[in-house]
Amino acid sequence: MIETIAHPRAEQPGRAPRHVPGEAGLWVFILGDMTMFALLFGAFLYARQHQPAAFAAGRAQLSLAIGAINTLVLLTSSLLVALAPQAHRAKRPAAASRMLAGAGACALTFVALKAIEWTTLISSHPHLTNNHFFAYYFALTGLHLLHLMLGTAGLALVHRTFRRGSGQPRDRLIIEAGCSYWHMVDLVWVLIFPLVYLAST
Amino acid sequence: MTEETPQMLTTDPPTLTSTERPSSDPPLTPRDFRAWRLCTWAGVAYAVTLLPAFALLAHFVPPPRENWSAEHVAAFFRGHEVGIRLGMEGLLMFGLTYALLSISLARLMTRIEGRGGFLAGIQLLGGIITALITMGCALLWLTASLRAGSRSPSEIQLLNDVGWMTIDVTIMATILQFLAFGAACLINDGRPVPLFPRWLGYLSFFFAFEYLVEYVMPSVHTGPFAWQGLLSFYVALGTFGVWIVTVTVYALRAISTVQREPAR
Fold first, then answer.
1. Would you give per-residue pLDDT tens digits along chain B (264 residues)?
2. Among A77, A80, A140, B211, whose CB has the most other CB atoms within 10 angstroms?
3. Is A47 an 8 Å CB contact of chain B?
């Protein structure tokens, strides 16, 4: 899923040591973050087991269409984020920049749709968070949204690195870290969508 | 620049120009290094005071639940009146030691980012506010325990509520501190061995992100997000303790590194 970029050792497959995208420490953060989401998913499932009716009723109020479109939007963005470093490595900076801009547009679309979804829910049900399903719904989607915003800032940083093209070793770190993080944001959503929007008890 | 001789024990710090950073810190005396190490250990003092004061004296592990009735909360405070009072007084006495650790870290961060850097100041701000919040919450619980026998249950519940609410939703100060510290760990300052390992920076980022779950607390009264919950309470306290101990170990090591570095 994650491409290595212009790494000298990566050009000799077979003999080369395995390359960690970004750097090893980055994965302390990414895997730690994913562990946190895993705990949240566990808590969600546990609560759902105890209140199946409330959770089913809450799920019925969500807009499946917005959830599905947002899933497609994020999957598209992940594809672009996977392709952009390849284009950058193939010395096609304009294409790489365009792909990243496309991923950024996907991120904005996601945020806009999420805003519509939230405002609709809140305005029609002002006491929503007294319901356990919606407490979890806002917790999961809200935390994911914060991660997505940070990931978008990361993509902007990658974009700037592409445009500068200074070829420093630091560039590779920024590109790989930004892209890896974005894939995590996407992965978490791909888990939230079936769990919250689709699955029934 | 005659002040830059190693014997400057009593002279003023040399005037610094922007081009001289980060290598032109004034030389520190052995006494300064002792104070620096003491400030670092103060963080451990905070951790080892907080835990027994919280758990053993006040019986706040697990805390009075978010979903308890006023009568239930009042009975808890009446039952543990003396323990809560002593525990909270302990927190008030030692709360500021956390800020001392932040001062030590800020000095180390200045050695990484240079005197023009902003991260040290942001970290210090977050650390000081975190210490003050601990003390503010202790003050609320202390007040709840005062006259617990004659105070109405709803007043005790209110003070208890405000205390737990405050300690959870003001976590942004700690998040800011962790983010600034983490960012400084990722700066390449040209040292062959960095003062703090890069993974410690990423670990700080992870912990900072984990603390965001505190903002779910007001919406749920039970489960892992409630103030007595697995994530809001146990994981948050645990990671906070791990951070303090880990950072202290590496800070002490970094101070020794700074002490061994030739005066530049």
1. 344 444 444 444 444 444 444 555 568 899 999 999 999 999 999 998 888 888 889 999 999 999 999 999 999 999 999 999 999 999 999 999 999 999 999 999 999 999 899 999 999 999 999 999 999 999 999 999 999 889 999 999 999 999 999 999 999 999 999 999 999 999 988 899 999 999 999 999 999 999 988 988 887 888 888 899 888 899 999 999 999 999 999 999 999 999 998 765
2. A77
3. yes
Instruction: Decide if B223 and A47 are in contact by the 8 Å CB cutoff.
Output: yes
Give yes or no for a cis peptide into B218 (omega within 30° of 0): no
Interface predicted TM-score of the whole assembly (ipTM), two decimals: 0.72
Alpha-carbon span B145 to B141, nearest angstrom: 6
- Which residue's structure tokens are 């890896």? A180
Encode A114-126: b = buried (16+ Cβ within 10 Å), e = exposed. beebbeebeeeee
pTM: 0.81
Interface contact flag, A39 B224, Cβ < 8 Å: yes
- Does residue B203 belong to the interface with chain A, where contact is any CB pair within 8 Å? yes
Cα torsion B188, B191, B192, B193: sign: negative
User: Interhelix angle for A52-61 vs A24-50, to 10°?
Assistant: 110
Query: CB distance B199–A28 less than 8 Å?
Result: yes
Give the chain A residue nearest B212 (alpha carbons). Answer: A143
> Within A125-165, where are the H helices?
132-164
Q: Do B213 and A139 touch (CB under 8 A)?
A: yes
Within an 8 Å CB–CB cutoff, is residue B172 touching chain A?
A: no
For A117-130, the pLDDT digits (tens) are 998 888 887 666 66
Give just the sign of the alpha carbon dihedral A31, A35, A38, A40.
Answer: negative
Q: Which residues of A140-160 are buried (b: 16+ CB within 10 A; e: fewer)?
A: bbbbbbebbeebbebbeebbe
What number of other Cβ atoms are within 10 A of residue B252's Cβ? 16
Cβ-Cβ contacts under 8 Å, B197 against chain A: 25
Amino acid at the residue B48: V
Q: pLDDT tens, B203-238?
A: 999 999 999 889 888 878 888 888 998 888 999 999
CA dist A134 and A127 (Å) reads 10
